[in-house]
Specification:
Length: 210
């Protein structure tokens, strides 16, 4: 909770008039529709404190901003697993190590051990994936291991977040293990957000994914 100094409260008229709008919006046939009730929640209450709703929205904005920073990394068709992992925040690397029972002291050492496991015994990772995640990998491999992220996100949900990094969706799980990395790639003079399978995993994955 963040307080506003009482002496400044009279000057916060504009802030007092701000609201968080909460509603459900769906897209149908290219048009967006509001479903159900629309609730207007004040950003600051009468005591000069941020409301819980506004704090939640602020945290969501911080999370999406930090995630976008990861996804703005430039990639090419030759980008390898170690390069992708190096762009992951330290806590994401720790999460991979915990899930795969990998021990390491510092980030670089942990990344080296993750890469070693993937290249020597990739099946230990693949056995943790749901069937739909394998379907996504198969789809991407048929397209050379690189697709525009929008093509995937239209069909598959992605619940990747920056802070609470425990995804449950197939695409989110693939990103968790860095079998799929989301970044920016130049295509025909334009930068697109793309999903790539690290280049040094593509041939190995073909042995397991049809």
């Amino acid at each position: 909770m963040v307080g506003a100094d009482p002496s400044e409260w009279k000057e916060l008229r504009k802030i007092k008039d701000l609201f968080v709008v909460e509603c459900h919006i769906i897209e149908m046939e290219g048009k967006h529709h509001v479903i159900g009730a629309v609730e207007f929640v004040p950003v600051i209450n009468e005591d000069g404190l941020l409301t819980f709703a506004s704090v939640d929205r602020i945290m969501e904005k911080v999370d999406s901003t930090r995630l976008k920073h990861v996804e703005d990394v430039k990639v090419t068709e030759r980008t390898k697993l170690s390069q992708c992992l190096s762009k992951y925040p330290a806590q994401w690397i720790d999460d991979i190590c915990k899930a795969l029972k990998i021990q390491g002291r510092v980030k670089d050492e942990k990344i080296d051990k993750i890469v070693e496991l993937y290249l020597k015994d990739l099946n230990k990772v693949l056995e943790k994936l749901p069937r739909e995640a394998l379907e996504i990998l198969g789809l991407m491999l048929k397209k050379g291991g690189i697709v525009k992220y929008s093509e995937l996100s239209r069909k598959y949900m992605d619940d990747t977040t920056f802070f609470h990094h425990q995804p449950k969706t197939p695409l989110g799980i693939l990103r968790f293990y860095c079998l799929v990395f989301v970044g920016k790639m130049n295509m025909n003079g334009k930068n697109y957000r793309v999903a790539i399978i690290p280049s040094d995993l593509r041939e190995k994955l073909k042995e397991y994914v049809g």
